[in-house]
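Let us practice reading a record.
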Amino acid sequence: MYQVQLTSGIWENELQFCIKICKVLRAMVKSHLTLRMIIDYYPMQTVACGTAQPTRYRPLQTVDALRVVALGDSLIYGFGDPVGGGWVERLRRGWMQPGSAGHTLYNLGIRGDGVKQVAQRLESEFRQRGELRNRLPDLIILSVGVNDSARLARLSGRNFTDFDTFCADMTGLLEQARALCPVLFVGMVPVDEAKMPFLDCLYYNHADQSRYKEATRLICETLQIPYLDVFTQWLGRGSDWCRSRLSEDGLHPNVAGYQSLLDDVLNWQPFIDRGLSLPSVPCWA
């Protein structure tokens, strides 16, 4: 963490006061601090009758503002939530609230993406989101895999991505991501099987979802990447609860579903341990 030593006391006049502020801000900018961090480090002084009054400086925050990229499919993109824009967008807005750590979040979800597509664009997306010269994002959030599990044309058809190929692709993606920065993985939500097929040709089902998500969880465990098992958590709350959180298409969460997903993420210990919590949880539902 960057620290700048400030002296307390009464400033002699407004000019000296402004000069000292400029020096502090210049030092912070040279250290590549964001405007939000500068504001948090240096509180406003009150000026009365032409004399700046002494103040106590705000203690330095223990968590610096992070740059986070979220990559994946429609669950990252937020399709199905016209109110809050999905759980990633809700989180992004929350991090802009007064009192939050001021983390920056880039939503890089693309509808229909599978593991292979995310792997192809991972590094280029990552390296363009550092914001400052020679800086890179601090964290990657991944959520992908449900599209690979779908069966084509009929319930007994082949999977969109063969299971062995999926495992190899997922291993490659996670190894690639882990080499760039710390990674968190948010798992898929269970579909409503009664609403299948999706788009009259894609048969998503719990059996294949369970097999693909479990493979992902085990790969994450091997690579020491935290994995949030949303599929198991949601099924544990009952079928009626799950259906109430899904859109009419039976595949994507609805407004309430994305709020529930955000709540699950915010209550996840690896998320809390990294200082990613919100000062309060906004609810657009």
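A brief commentary: The chain has two domains: 1-62, 67-273.
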